[in-house]
């Protein structure tokens, strides 16, 4: 990159402004006028550092003859009344600025590769306008006899870093003609959009609007693919005949540049849209773009070959609101039935799952011999009828039976489930919820299974010590799950 730096000295002999704000306003208007004139010469213009003596104005000469651009920049500046202006041209921004500020001619060009040699004879204060300069650093360098840029550039990088730190290293690079700063920011390009308006008629027919929008969507998607990008959201704008417009967001399950996907989303939106007036146009614009997702894979892997079709199928189901991919998400909730919840997955998680496939886990044979039992919880605790007896002041379950449908009680004489052994109680209390919960859990062994029962103690009306030696607690006991 070739930099063209214009040095515009501060005006002298002018009538002083009435206030500092007025002086700043005059300088701002002068910079604006100069920038407007220079933009006709160079594709990019930027204001640089300034002080009491003047200001640097940058012009971008990439792809252009640098000497011609420099001559035109000087001519424009002199035409606006800056007769003392000077121009510096160099591959490094710091060298171009020094050449413009302290050059002996109106236009000073430093050839490529001679940046360090050009700065070597210059006194160190020529770098005073750079961000790395400070009075403290200048004093420290003067104490060790460094007076010119060549003296500083001749030092070893490690020695400069140890003695003067990061600030000294930054100034050392500038003294060597090495400047990595970005003078011209990258301009943001306009995102793809397309629109069409008509005055001959107005319509509310979704099919007619979709027919017009089909071509607009194709144009937008072609531009996206041309840039190698995709879009996740678009904005649909419908100007109304009576004034105003209706805007709706179109959002897909995944970022895509597929025309069929956006047509399907637009059709669904138009079919459920209630328009207050006739439409006289239609517009589409992309709200944000994403890089094209093209993961590397093995063409001989059958799972990878079919993953794209699987992703499209899941995306279509999500777009049509016919379903959502979910996964279990754990938490530290004190109640077991609320520790796991189904969470809707983002599409990038679904895509990663589809691409990864299901890998079989090979366990050693010894693992099956020592496999621990897994607790299976019911979706909701099921109310049961439990017979208890007193043990060490606790109501221990000795048998239970389940209620029938509709809370109907089982017939008399129906066999009960006898509890061989019961371990507990393990108490869980939660006071931070809207309704406080207190439970006593019992692990019970029966002839057929190992079950988990709990007693709801939050609704107790009398202490356990007053309960009979053996009783049925119909409304307090629940079956929560079993082990297998």
Give the % helix: 25-40%
Evaluate the radius of gyration.
39 Å
Give the quaternary arrangement of the chains. Answer: single chain
Helix/strand structural class: alpha+beta
Number of helices: 12
Shape: elongated
The number of E-state strands comes to: 20
Query: What's the story with the biggest beta sheet?
Result: 8 strands, antiparallel
Number of domains: 3
Model regions low in confidence, pLDDT < 50 over at least 5 residues: 14-19, 358-363, 461-468
Mean pLDDT: 80
Instruction: Please report the distance between the alpha carbons of the first and last residues.
Output: 72 Å
Strand content: 25-35%
Could you name the key traits of this structure?
elongated; 484 residues; 20 strands; 3 domains; single chain; Dna Ligase, domain 1; five-stranded mixed β-sheet
Verbal overview:
The protein has 484 residues and is of the alpha+beta class. It folds into three domains: 3-175; 193-291, 2-Layer Sandwich (Dna Ligase, domain 1); 375-483, no CATH class. The chain is 31% helix and 29% strand. The strands form four sheets. Strands 13, 14, 15, 16, 17, 18, 19 and 20 form an eight-stranded antiparallel sheet that branches. Strands 2-3-1-4-5 form a five-stranded mixed sheet. Strand 13 and strand 14 form a beta hairpin. It starts with a strand and ends with a strand.
């Amino acid at each position: 990159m070739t930099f063209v730096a214009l040095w515009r000295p501060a005006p002298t002999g002018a009538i002083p402004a009435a206030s500092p704000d007025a002086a700043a306003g005059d300088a701002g208007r002068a910079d604006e006028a100069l920038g407007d004139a220079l933009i006709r010469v160079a594709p990019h213009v930027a204001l640089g550092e300034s002080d009491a003596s003047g200001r640097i104005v940058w012009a971008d000469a990439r792809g252009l003859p640098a000497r011609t651009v420099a001559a035109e920049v000087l001519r424009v500046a002199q035409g606006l009344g800056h007769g003392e202006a000077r121009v510096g041209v160099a591959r490094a921004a710091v060298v171009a600025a020094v050449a413009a500020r302290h050059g002996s001619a109106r236009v000073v060009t430093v050839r490529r590769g001679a940046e360090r040699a050009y700065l070597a004879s210059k006194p160190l204060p020529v770098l005073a306008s750079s961000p790395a300069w400070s009075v403290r650093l200048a004093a420290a360098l003067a104490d060790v006899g460094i007076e010119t840029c060549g003296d500083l550039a001749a030092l070893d990088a490690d020695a400069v870093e140890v003695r003067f730190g990061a600030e000294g290293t930054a100034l050392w690079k500038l003294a060597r003609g090495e400047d990595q700063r970005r003078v011209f920011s990258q301009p943001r390009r306009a995102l793809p959009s397309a629109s069409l308006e008509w005055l001959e008629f107005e319509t509310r027919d979704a099919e007619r609007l979709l027919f017009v929008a089909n071509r607009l969507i194709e144009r937008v998607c072609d531009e996206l693919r041309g840039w190698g990008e995709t879009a996740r959201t678009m904005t649909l704008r419908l100007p109304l005949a009576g004034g105003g417009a209706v805007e709706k967001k179109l959002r897909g399950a995944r970022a895509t540049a597929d025309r069929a996907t956006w047509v399907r989303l637009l059709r669904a939106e138009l079919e459920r849209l209630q328009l207050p007036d006739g439409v006289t146009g239609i517009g589409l614009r992309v709200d944000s773009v994403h890089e094209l997702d093209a993961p590397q894979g093995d063409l001989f892997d059958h799972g990878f070959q079919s993953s794209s079709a699987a992703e499209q199928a899941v995306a279509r189901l999500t777009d049509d609101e016919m379903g959502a991919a979910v996964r279990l998400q754990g938490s530290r909730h004190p109640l077991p039935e609320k520790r796991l919840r189904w969470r809707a997955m983002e599409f990038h998680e679904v895509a990663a799952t589809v691409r990864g496939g299901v890998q079989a886990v090979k366990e050693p044979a010894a693992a099956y011999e020592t496999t621990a039992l897994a607790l299976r919880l019911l979706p909701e605790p099921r109310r049961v009828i439990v017979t208890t007896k007193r043990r060490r002041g606790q109501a221990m379950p000795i048998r239970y039976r389940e209620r029938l449908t509709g809370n109907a009680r089982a017939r008399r004489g129906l066999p009960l489930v006898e509890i061989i052994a019961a371990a507990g109680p393990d108490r869980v209390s939660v006071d931070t919820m809207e309704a406080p919960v207190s439970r006593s859990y019992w692990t019970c062994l029966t002839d057929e299974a190992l079950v988990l029962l709990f007693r709801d103690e939050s609704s107790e009306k009398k202490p356990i010590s007053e309960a009979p030696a053996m009783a049925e607690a119909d409304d307090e006991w629940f079956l929560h799950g079993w082990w297998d």
